[in-house]
Amino acid sequence: MLVFSKLFDLLVALASCVALFSFNDAPPPGPPQGQYEVDTVRFVLTNPAEKNADKPVPHVWIDTNTKLSGLSGGTLKSRLPYGLQLDFTDVQREYKAVEFTTVEVAYDDEQVDPRAKPPKLPLRIDARDYEMVNSVAGGQIVKSNVRILSGKIPAVVTRAEPLTLRLEGYFVENDGTKRRFQLDEHYDVEKEKTVKPAREVLQDL
Q1: Buried b or exposed e, range 36-63, using 16+ CB within 10 angstroms
Q2: Given CB 3.0 to 4.6 Å as the disulfide criterion, which of 78, 105, 122, 136 pairs with 41?
Q3: What is the pTM of this model?
Q4: How far is the C-alpha of 39 from the C-alpha of 195, rounded, in Å?
């Protein structure tokens, strides 16, 4: 019995040493300690249009394809070419699709990028059903069925420079009737090239 008792004590001591080593070897808790080389672009709309329920237009923004190389430091970089993200919430469920017939990008310096390839038009995006869930006073949950028209037009912007975006097309109603829309939006460019702590970069994402 004495032999087994000593063997048991030895195993317990060995397990304690392994646990202590693993604990001391673990990374310290808290925010990430690395850094990111930041090289990003952001397009800022300078002439936002007034909303008009009688003249619906899709919400459009320029996706600068900005990605992290890792979660504890590395790079945060925007990569050309940039695409267009499109979104419209049809609360009344009036439309079954949206069609784009014109997609034009005009840079302020009037230079034309020979690498730019216009998208194939007309471009149609079909609506999809979506259930919205909202909470109201008293904790009551209210559900409503809407339609979402969303999609992407890739590789439309090939330069990180101020530009005007012109879009034309139609909302297609349930009976096939088409309601025309037109967008003429100007964007300035904000560029950032610096080094930031990982905790600052990640909290802004």
Answers
A1: bebebbebeeeeeeeeeeeebbbebebb
A2: 78
A3: 0.78
A4: 9
